[in-house]
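Support request, priority: normal
Reporter: lab tech (M.K.)
Component: structure prediction queue

Hi team, I submitted a job for Zinc-binding dehydrogenase from Streptomyces gossypii yesterday, and the status page still shows it as pending. I've pasted the exact input below so you can check whether something in the sequence is tripping the parser. The sequence length should be 311 residues. Please let me know if I need to resubmit or if it's stuck on your end.
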Amino acid sequence: MRALLVDRSAPAGLRLGQAPDPVPAPHQALIRVAATSFNYGEIRHGLEEAPDGSVPGWDAAGVVEQAAADGSGPAVGTLVTTLAMDGAWAELRAVDTEWMGTAPAGADPGALSTIPVAGASALRALHRIGPLLGRRVLITGATGGVGRYAVQLARQGGAHVVASTGNPEAHSDALRTLGAHEVIVGPGPKALGTPVDGVVDLVGGSQLVDGYQMLAEHGTLVSVGHATDEREHFPARAFFGDQGGHDRTIASFYLAACTGLTRDLTWLAERVAGGGLDPQISWRGSWDGAAEAAEALLGRHLHGKAVLELD
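Reply from support: The job had stalled in the queue. We restarted it manually and it finished. Here are the results:
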């Protein structure tokens, strides 16, 4: 099969080549991939750690070519969105049936391919915060793929949404269109003003520290992304419970450790297909342009999702 292979001598460390067809385990379905999407983390860190000649990639959408032998999962011919820790950037991938969601027939595979990491991470992080109706929620790094899904989902859940970005002048209109009530620079007291009930942190470092300190009593910060390489340095007394600091929580997050993702992926796929969620595709093209998309993502020139269509 054709695939994007790790090759550190090629532009962006990727080249189009041939790889063996995957052999699915009994609990896996074989998917004919139509589109895949890039995530910053897999480009920034995943390629560095992957061996030469391997097929990386987390997100892909396509059609079931061979159903799982154990009878789980969707039937042959079903359009699905899929998640795994590798294998997405190829014509075929074998995927655990617990890590795929079904999509309406005729839906855009490119849009569906943006869902698994970005959409599911945003949804699960907001679930961890708890009921959103009437709550005040901060999304840091809101212009990225996860952030844009989180802004939409938080608004639809009834939250007052505060979106944090490094360049509000460039992104304010777009984030407000997605559902943000406020767009600020960083989560510090001067920018944020009023404390928040929940934080979806996609940045880490000082923004995680500031976000935690701006939590209201009983508030929760979910640490999802680590766009910065900064360490977290908390000031003295940051974890004291007096003066409104009682029962504030920092929750760690790892999507691959989540269970029950089929329901989430299917729910998200239905809403993307129906227009209720905007996948925010900012780059779209053939997988011949993978190096261009990867370099634009690493250079922070893309805000949203980059989609590759397998032709």
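The mean pLDDT is 94. The first strand starts at residue 2 and ends at 6. Let us know if anything else looks off. Ticket resolved.
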